[in-house]
Amino acid sequence: MKHLFIINPVAGGRKNNFKETHSKIKEFAETLQDPYEIYITQKPMDACNKIVEEAECVEELRVYACGGDGTLNECANGAANRSNVAITHYPCGTGNDFLKTFGKENVNMFRDLQALSTGTVRALDLVDCNGRYGINICSVGIDARIGTDVHKYSRIPIIGGATGYVVSMVINVLKGVTQKFRVATDEIIIDKEITLACVCNGQYYGGGFNPVPDAVPDDGILDCLIVEPVSRIKVAEIVGKYAKGRFKEFPNLFTHIRGHRMEISRDKEFVVNIDGEAMYTKSVTFKLVHKGVNFVFPPKIQHIRTGKQKIGA
Known about the structure:
This protein is of the alpha+beta class and 313 residues long. It contains 7 helices and 16 strands. The protein is 24% helix and 36% strand.
C-alpha cells in the first residue's frame, strides 16, 4: 500500500501553519513501513488529478487530505468509484465540517496520523453534481451566494475571518433573499421563488450549520430541504432555526424530501455550493452515488452519528 499525503498549503487562512503541518506529516511518514509521498497542491483540483494518476500505478492507495473541506472534496473526486483508493481527512482547515458528522468531539481523533494509517475503511455515499462530486452538503440560493462571497470579503484586511461571513450575508440579503428556480425531485416539481435548496449527505457545513441532523452519509439516501420565500426581516429568525436543524418547527416554510435525485434550474446562471466550492451553471442535477468512495476512520470511531441515534458500522 502507498500512503499519499495531500497538503493544501493555504488551508486554514490566517491560522495556517504550513511548515508545522508539513514537518509533522514528514516525521510520521518516515516511520511507515510502506512507501509514501507528500504532495503539496498548487492549483484547484490538483489533488484530484494527482490521485487519479497515482491510482493507476499502485494496487492500493491511502490518501490523507491535509487541509479543509475543500481539500477533502478534491480528494473525494479523485477517489470516486475507485476500489483501490481510500481517503481520510487530517483536518487543518477553517471549518472541517464534514468530520463533525461523526461527532464534534471526535474531530481530534482524525489528527492522529497513526490511527488514520491503521484505521477502518468503510464506503460512504457521494453526490454527483453535473459530474463534480460532493461528499458533504450541496446547495443553491442565498446560502450558496453568501458562502461564495465570504472569501472575497475575508481577504480584506479590515474585515477578515468570521466577519467576512457577516459582511457577505448582509450584502447578499440586501441584494434579495429569494430567486426563482425550477426544482424537480422524484416526489415534487415546483417553479417559483425559493430562499434556498440543499442536498445533505453529511450534517454540517458553512462553519457549523446543521440543517438535517439525521442525515447519514452511508444510508443510500439524500436528505433535501427546500426553503420557501422569506422576507429580509424574517430571514434572521429562519437562518437560526435552519442552522440548528429545527426545520420541522416551520412546516409551512421547509419541505423535507428523502430521495436519490434533485434537479434545479433557472434561466440565468447561478452559483452552486459543492462542499464549500463554487460551480456556476444554469442547471444542476444532484444524484446519489451509493458507496461511491472508501473512507478511513480512526479505530475508536465505531458509529456514524445522527441527531437521534447511532447507526452501526
